[in-house]
Amino acid sequence: xxxxxxxxxxxxxxxxxxxxxxxxxxxxxxxxxxxxxxxxxxxxxxxxxxxxxxxxxxxxxxxxxxxxxxxxxxxxxxxxxxxxxxxxxxxxxxxxxxxxxxxxxxxxxxxxxxxxxxxxxxxxxxxxxxxxxxxxxxxxxxxxxxxxxxxxxxxxxxxxxxxxxxxxxxxxxxxxxxxxxxxxxxxxxxxxxxxxxxxxxxxxxxxxxxxxxxxxxxxxxxxxxxxxxxxxxxxxxxxxxxxxxxxxxxxxxxxxxxxxxxxxxxxxxxxxxxxxxxxxxxxxxxxxxxxxxxxxxxxxxxxxxxxxxxxxxxxxxxxxxxxxxxxxxxxxxxxxxxxxxxxxxxxxxxxxxxxxxxxxxxxxxxxxxxxxxxxxxxxxxxxxxxxxxxxxxxxxxxxxxxxxxxxxxxxxxxxxxxxxxxxxxxxxxxxxxxxxxxxxxxxxxxxxxxxxxxxxxxxxxxxxxxxxxxxxxxxxxxxxxxxxxxxxxxxxxxxxxxxxxxxxxxxxxxxxxxxxxxxxxxxxxxxxxxxxxxxxxxxxxxxxxxxxxxxxxxxxxxxxxxxxxxxxxxxxxxxxxxxxxxxxxxxxxxxxxxxxxxxxxxxxxxxxxxxxxxxxxxxxxxxxxxxxxxxxxxxx
Amino acid sequence: xxxxxxxxxxxxxxxxxxxxxxxxxxxxxxxxxxxxxxxxxxxxxxxxxxxxxxxxxxxxxxxxxxxxxxxxxxxxxxxxxxxxxxxxxxxxxxxxxxxxxxxxxxxxxxxxxxxxxxxxxxxxxxxxxxxxxxxxxxxxxxxxxxxxxxxxxxxxxxxxxxxxxxxxxxxxxxxxxxxxxxxxxxxxxxxxxxxxxxxxxxxxxxxxxxxxxxxxxxxxxxxxxxxxxxxxxxxxxxxxxxxxxxxxxxxxxxxxxxxxxxxxxxxxxxxxxxxxxxxxxxxxxxxxxxxxxxxxxxxxxxxxxxxxxxxxxxxxxxxxxxxxxxxxxxxxxxxxxxxxxxxx
Lengths: 636, 344
Ligand code: SF4
Hints:
The complex is a heterodimer.
Chain A: E1 9-12, E2 14-22, H1 27-40, E3 44-50, E4 65-73, E5 86-89, H2 92-98, E6 107-111, H3 117-122, E7 139-143, H4 145-155, H5 160-164, H6 167-178, H7 184-193, H8 198-217, E8 224-227, E9 235-241, H9 242-257, E10 261-265, H10 272-280, E11 287-290, H11 294-306, E12 310-315, H12 317-333, E13 337-343, H13 360-365, E14 375-377, H14 383-398, E15 401-407, H15 408-412, E16 414-418, E17 438-439, E18 445-446, E19 472-474, H16 489-507, E20 515-516, E21 526-531, H17 535-547, E22 553-557, E23 559-561, H18 567-572, E24 576-581, H19 587-595, E25 600-603, H20 612-623
Chain B: H1 28-38, E1 49-53, E2 68-71, H2 77-87, E3 92-98, H3 99-105, H4 107-116, E4 120-126, H5 161-167, E5 172-177, H6 181-193, E6 198-203, H7 215-218, H8 223-226, E7 227-230, E8 237-238, E9 244-248, E10 254-258, H9 259-262, H10 278-284, E11 294-301, H11 307-322, H12 327-331, E12 336-339
Parallel strand pairs in B: 1-2, 1-3, 3-4, 4-6, 5-6, 7-11
Antiparallel strand pairs in B: 5-11, 8-9, 9-10
Helix pairs in contact in B: 1-6, 2-4, 3-4, 5-10
The structure holds iron/sulfur cluster (SF4).
């Protein structure tokens, strides 16, 4: 289709669009299409899917509202944005649930057909917000999306009920026009995705075009907008969610270690997509087992590891509770194992679809006995790829279970990712044992499964099938060296120290934590220390503070256990340390205990990530500066 | 893994240097001996043999075998063995478990390993008691069992392990007992030959906490009248002269009758390979406990695709269809765009 030159096109450097509707309205699909097209255009993007926990909440109610927020920009951005510039509300409930996020002056596009008496009541509106003046602070566009979509459906000869389902494509077309997105990629995508159902493809195409033309021709909009490509590092880019990146990282890690990949997993939100993705990649030799429960998932992964595979289990908080005993077993067995925890709001079932960083202390300490486990955390969706490789490196090199922490925000959020060169990925050495390693008193050779490497303190990994290295391992305490069962107290103490020393050996292999302090380490009066998914919000908040001419430093941890060896030095270089976390202050406890520094927590536990503005305000507060009017978001 | 002939071994080669530490007189000794004597006959290699266990007296078994072994956590052995067996189809994976381990804390893993038909051989040492924790009643203890945790008698109905395995879609189900080495060896051999999950219940005497639990049926003088040997293709008869037989009544119920009275043609002929497990199930219910004539031997032996093999087949088919995995192509599979360098 030809693109008609619009009346006026205004340049924007960034925009935040939020698509909201009923969970059956296809808002996630609409949002991610808009994101992909924007990425193809070269914009930087960051997304925040926000969907209800109930798979089928009653239609039209607040509980059933599903939203997808995307931030697109001509410069690199770090978060999905704070306040949306544009809200697309497919029904009254979507408007009511999301209005609170909007800043005055924002634009609201509503599907006016859905604002009938019944729908208004279901959403809890006494009066129609479109006519009672309550939206006076916003620019509101009322678009009859349902009826216009049914109109094109009728032209295509499709039943009204089926046609109505395409109204999200109308909305996508309209917003695509509003932000001058090219139409061809979406039309091609519709053709491919719905290729098997030509009538669905037809209505979706027509609805999409109708939305686009509506923007062009209706006299409603006075202008449309353009967001130019972001100047980013040259390279090949794709858009990736955290869970997909994590699954691919595991495949890459197995490839780099020349080990077969085995995943034992039980479905759980928000981790299941990793199981789904790996189950698709069988041609990589990936074996996936949907286990009978969480315990079997990790148990099977341990069994596979004994046999010489890269054993992985994936889960979320409740599953971590169940796996604790098996993680302890893996600590004793000293076999490589990667345990992935996509954190969600807890305790118990909590809020399955909402994000949180509440499992840090559990990852470090949630087992009986002295059971140290290395812990790593991903910072952004694409970083999940690198962290998966790093977790596998530590697990395989040091023969230990490793816990990888991601969370719901990273898992479902997407960002553009500059693809790494596959040949530059780090290699991982499995170094299987092939020979006996100990001499008996009579001079004959035997194999001792707990004779450690002097540098890594790793024990030899001898896999079944290797003649002469037959040995038994287990959960009972083992004698140092020989690996025979031992109840000797002094031997136990030695083994406890050896397992702890292995963590210190890991520390020697990880890079020092980098500090973003433009004038050099210790120049700023305050350091913001973060871990995991708060990276984007902290980096953006720090930029805002700097835009006011103030100094602030930022350090972000990937390795939570052991810590990078320079962390103490970094913390002591700053008079004030602020630790933002989506929990009640877990990392802050660890650094206070470990380094005796007066670090202060900044906490938020609303099932949502931090906003840049919240970080900015907390830093200003720490600096003793009045926030006054917030800086322009353009700094973000 | 190689074409070389399997080296000849003796019982000694299969025993580790660890001192065996079960209570003197425990039935576990005779099971260990039966297996260590059998393995040299099976044409298998020590390095390709793995014993996996959970927790309990029986779970010490792997330490005594000069093979690969894993003594894991309570109840989880079938799950752990599943991960090993599906990734290493070249191995012989044995699971050694007990009634508490397999049927109480690990019940879920047992039934799922059986229904998946993973290529593992499960030996369940059933002594109807908790031995390692010193004498509490178990999920196979009879109702009214007086133990430390049930001073007024236990209330719960026990599991019948054979019925449970049959209900869990097991493809190989057998029973043997620790007083008959030859029968054990024959049963273990059959279980080992089976492709898929093989389940063997072994009546095992715990002489410390539940002595004589099976004495009434396994005692040397009782056996002929109290054990009903199941032999494929043969009428199910027992007694010193084969004078009793298992018949199906008009009501569909199995019962025991003197062969002379009912005639041998009315005696059921055992068919291990019947696809419908109904008759095997009925046989497993013939005795209400080890105090009535009890069938032993192979209840069921049918073929169904083995889980690990099926999993491997899916990988090979995927590789045929799509070629071996190409990581660079995978990373680009969601669509890419180029950001040109400054030179452009
Ligand atoms: S407690 Fe019973 S089962 Fe355990 S070793 Fe002693 S006799 Fe054997």
